[in-house]
Each structure stands twice: as structure tokens, then as C-alpha cells.
Amino acid sequence: MIFSSPMADRNATDTAPRILVVRNDKLGDFMLAWPALACLKAGAPDARISALVPAYTAPLAQLCPWIDEVIVDPGAAAGRQGQRSLLVSLRERRFTAMLTLFSTPRVGWLGWRADIPLRMAPATKWAQLFYNRRVTQRRSRSARPEYHYNVELAEALLVALNRQPTPRPEPPYWPLPPATADAQRRAIANELAIDASRPWLYLHAGSGGSAVNLTPVQYAELAVTIDTRLRGADERRPLWLLTAGPGEEHGAEALAGTLTARGLTAAVLPPRRGLGDFALALAAADLFIAGSTGPLHIAGCLNRPTAGFYPARRSATALRWQTCNEPSRRLAFSPPIEAEELDMGSIDLCAAAASISTFLQTHGSRGHPL
């Protein structure tokens, strides 16, 4: 399935690079590719950038201002015919270059068979044999944020295309007109009959089945402690909006009930019209609280303030999976050094609540720009 921008078609020329960017895994990984996509567009504004993504993230890819065309990857389970159809589609586009941010043998083979002359990927695993340009990064050391590694690959591709990389783009990597966020806030306020002037703290307790996260009990304690601290500081009490991924709705309803029973003002974000609409709804948040999940990284890409909870495992640290919003807009919490790396119960929730409360008191809510 192909989604193309008509404006991009009209602006394309025969001499403009045609770049295929591959990030066909999970939602959070895809959102952390947006800084690299912005880098490519800044360094080669005439380039036509196509993105190969799974059907799940395709609605967000269609909203990305740095992507001209979205190609849906049917995945390894599509079988021989599905792979053949995708290969034919890639060949027809006669790409100048292919940038694979997450390499697998299947994707490397497709790029090679599609006769893409310049194929670049990280120099990891045996899939790199399908690429003629490789960048050594050693991501497993988690020495830098994931999106920094992606930007490094984009800059290397620009150099290989004889383009001069520009200064790195800065957040927001998903820029929206202020009117868009205001419209989202008004719409949600009308749906739920809630006060749009109060601070809105979004809380996403689900994990999507992949991220190590706090338990609902821990999130409830965190929210109650934050609410109590703000009340004691004579700050306006926040409104808690619970969000959920597919299959997590019951948990969000239960957590909202728990918070309401303990005297907080809480509601569940109503179902949205697909992933794209859900993502836009996050633009209304004054703060987004979650584990290292896809929604947290959507909020970061929108440059909304975030508070993330991470395990201490080296492959999943707060540094490696840092949100890509401005540094002053993100908080991160992990188990202490002496704890087990996956022991999220060892995180000091009182200290986390104090940091979040101070952050909110310092920066204010939407009525006081962060």
C-alpha cells in the first residue's frame, strides 16, 4: 500500500535524490526516527523521501512533515508473494539511496534486489552484508540517545550523496501550529465536560507489551502524591487524563476509578479515530507521564513536557531511550544503582513526585508557556 503526497510529486525532479528510509518496527522506535528524517529534509530539501513502515505506524508516517511518500511493509509473514510485490514496488521507484535505521536480513535483501545503488545501515549483525555503506555505532553500549544514532546515520547519508549536512534541526520534530493543539484541547474538554484551564496531566500506564513499566498501584501512588503536593503549594489542582493502547482500555478505566475514589479529578481519554488522531490528542498535554512506550515518544516528538520511567538495563536506559523534546522539558526516573536493573519497585516515587511537582510549579501549565 502506497500513500503519496501530490505536492511532493509536483515538486520532484529527475535530479533530486530519491531516498528510502526504513524504520519498520515499533511505534517508539519510529518516533525516534523523526529527528533523522528532519535532518535529511534540511540537508537535501529537494529530495523525495519515502518511508517503509508497518501498517501500524503508517497513519503517523502520513502526518510526518518530513516524509513525502509512505510505503507499507507487509512484514516477513506476508510470504513469497508479499515480498515479491514489495520488491517490484521498490524497483519501480528507482531509489537513489536507502537508509535502514534498523537492519534485518529481509530488508537488506530487498534493498539489494531492488538495485538501489547506495545502501546504508549500521554496521551490526550479518545483515550488513547487503549494504555497501556502513556506519559503526555500537548502539548496544547505549552511550547516546537512540535518536542521536539515527541522526548520525542521516548525516552520513547526506555526505555520501555529496550534500552538506546543515546544523542539526532542533525540537519540535513534529511542529504543529498552536491552533492545532488549542483545537485538540477544546475538543477534548467538550467531550469530557472538563475544565480546559486546569493543568492536564496525561498518564499512560500501559506498556504495549514491551516496555518495563510501573504498576497501576505505583502510578496511583505517584498521582496522589503529586496532586497532594500541588494542593499544599496552593497550585491549581491538575486534571488527570488516562490514555491507553489497544487492549489496555480496561486498565485505564480502573486506574481512573482508583484516582477518583482517592479525591483526584480523573477521566479516560475517549477513543480516537485511529493512531493519528490519538497522537494529535497528546498535543493538548501539559505533561505526559509514562514508561518508555510509543506514546511517550509521540509526546516528546511534539515537544510536550514528559516524565518517563525506565529500567536500568543497559539496552533500555533513560539515556538510550531519551525522548526527543527539549532537555528542559523532560524528566526521567530509573531504579537506583544498587537495585536490580528491572526492579521498577525500587524507584523512589516520593522523590519522583517531588521532581514532577517542582517542574509543574516552575513552568506552569499551558497558560504559562514552558
UniProtKB/TrEMBL annotation:
Keyword Ubl conjugation: no
Signal peptide: none
A GO molecular function held by the record: ADP-heptose-lipopolysaccharide heptosyltransferase activity
Cited Pfam families: Glyco_transf_9
GO CC annotations on file: cytosol
Biological process according to GO: lipopolysaccharide core region biosynthetic process
Name of the protein: Glycosyltransferase family 9 protein
Annotated source species: Billgrantia pellis
